[in-house]
Design goal:
46% strand, five-stranded mixed beta sheet, mainly beta, four-stranded antiparallel beta sheet, 0% helix, single chain, 316 residues
Length: 316
């Protein structure tokens, strides 16, 4: 029998904002009108634009660009490792490797790839519509393993030494655990309804999962203890959930704005209850946030800009 799913008290999900956070910088005119891919490298933040990637120097927020053959609206995620950038080109049906010093690019064909995931054994991607997980060898820049994944639901994630992805069985969502070295399934964890599409690692190694597959409203979230397999349903309103990040011992969820209101950033306790809530700028619809260089970087979906917030502003 799987561990039971516990449910916290609901009223705290509507905790009122206790303040607002102010951006220390806004990176404007990045050429992306849809969802914005963002990643941190050793010495810079990188943002996907329209057939280019923008490098942001964290010292002074100055920008430079490198041509990349991915159109605006086709970026579905990227990772930066040393002097390599890997990005998913959804409509181009490829993962693109960029050698950052030279600007040289290599395309690896794979259908409608979602956000790439880096493991010690290669780069993993999943197609938007499920079916097969693909591993790319970084040295040869070629596919070296394909793993059929029944019920695969979009986005894999690196959790410790494992690869996790969302599955479904008998109508229930699952967290499926995979060995990234062999591609063999280790096991799975049954999840609450409307979760199991996106996975993020929060404070203390706990895994937070949200729904949103197949166009469904991403309005459910749960916390998974990867050691015990226990699952706790988190307090969330019926609103689109942007992303989850861990900052200095706290797990934060960025939530898109309701009509006529600002978005918010919500601090969660490990049991899924709300600790505190802060307002985001009015025009910020958050997506794909990262924490790097002492700051929280939040792309504004559909706005063509990225906000930078000092992590100190999130302190109680």
């Amino acid at each position: 029998m799987p561990p039971p799913v516990s449910t916290p008290t609901r009223p705290s999900a509507t905790t009122a904002p206790v303040g607002a956070i102010t951006a220390s910088a806004v990176i404007e005119n990045i050429g992306a009108k849809g969802a914005i891919a963002i990643a941190a490298g050793p010495d810079a933040v990188w943002i996907g634009g329209d057939r280019e990637v923008i490098r942001v120097d964290p010292a002074d927020n100055s920008t430079t660009t490198i041509p990349v053959p991915i159109d605006d609206g086709s970026w579905t995620g990227m990772v930066v490792v040393g002097e390599e950038l890997w990005a998913s080109d959804y409509y181009g049906n490829a993962v693109v490797h960029v050698d950052l010093p030279s600007g040289a690019t290599t395309r690896i064909d794979t259908p409608t790839p979602t956000s790439p995931v880096l493991t010690a054994f290669g780069l993993w991607v999943a197609p938007e519509h499920g079916g097969t997980l693909t591993r790319i060898d970084r040295a040869t820049r070629s596919i070296d393993l394909e793993v059929p994944a029944a019920g695969l639901r979009k986005f894999p994630a690196a959790v410790g030494k494992e690869l996790w992805f969302g599955g479904i069985r008998d109508g229930l969502p699952l967290a499926v655990r995979l060995d990234p070295a062999s591609g063999e399934t280790i096991g799975d964890i049954v999840l609450p309804k409307d979760t199991g599409c996106y996975f993020r690692v929060g404070d203390g190694g706990l895994v937070w999962t949200m729904g949103g597959c197949g166009g469904a409203a991403r309005n459910a979230m749960a916390v998974i203890d990867p050691v015990t397999g226990s699952v706790t349903l988190a307090n969330t309103p019926k609103a689109f959930l942007g992303d989850i990040v861990a900052i200095d011992g706290t797990t934060w969820m960025l939530r898109s704005p309701a009509a006529g209101k600002s978005g918010v950033i919500v601090a969660y306790a490990s049991n899924g209850t709300v600790d505190r809530v802060l307002d985001l700028p009015v025009d910020l619809d958050p997506d794909w946030a990262i924490v790097a260089f002492g700051s929280l970087w939040v792309p504004a979906d559909q706005r063509g800009r990225v906000y930078r917030f000092p992590v100190d502003a999130l302190a109680p």
